[in-house]
Amino acid sequence: MKKIVKYLKFVFFILIFVLLVSNLMLLKNIMNTLVKIDEEIKIKTENLETKIEEVTNELFEKQEIISEMIFSTYENTNFQIKQFQNINETYGNVLEETKKEINHKLDEGYNEIPKIKEAGLYFYDNKNYLEAYNKFKNILLFEEDNHEIRNMLVKSLYYSNPANSTNFTEIMNEINKIKNTVYNDAEIKKIENIIKLERGEIDE
Prior knowledge:
- The structure is a single chain.
- By secondary structure, this protein is mostly helical.
- Helices cover 86% and strands 0% of the residues.
- The radius of gyration is 55 Å and the shape is rod-shaped.
């Protein structure tokens, strides 16, 4: 009986020892696993910190580039605005000078109208109809509603070459402008009918 008890104690001790060793081995494995996990966490944390630093540096670099671009755009815009202001000012001055020059020439033109009319009538009376037409045309540039001059212009253009049908359109346009005035005289009506007859618009 004593032998059996002694044997059982021995077996129990062996079991306890085996169990303890097993637990120690398991604990060691767990510790190794935890160490590996800790190392992986450290590596990933270091990588993450490196990545954050890289991204931060990249953002700062881009921010500097964007700031430079904004500043450059601002400077270019200011420069263009100044250029536009200078051009606008120059254009305004040129326009003002041009207006003065045009007004001066208009004044000169108005002052010359009596002389031009006299020259036109002289050329007309001497049957130099083309020169007369040019003089009357110049007067109408200043006095568009001068139907007396338009009457003379129509006659001058027609008599410069009655057979030149290329003048008919201009002649008829000018006649239409004096249709309802006292300057639509018998001679003008005769010219109008001749042109209409040539065009086949009326019968003989």
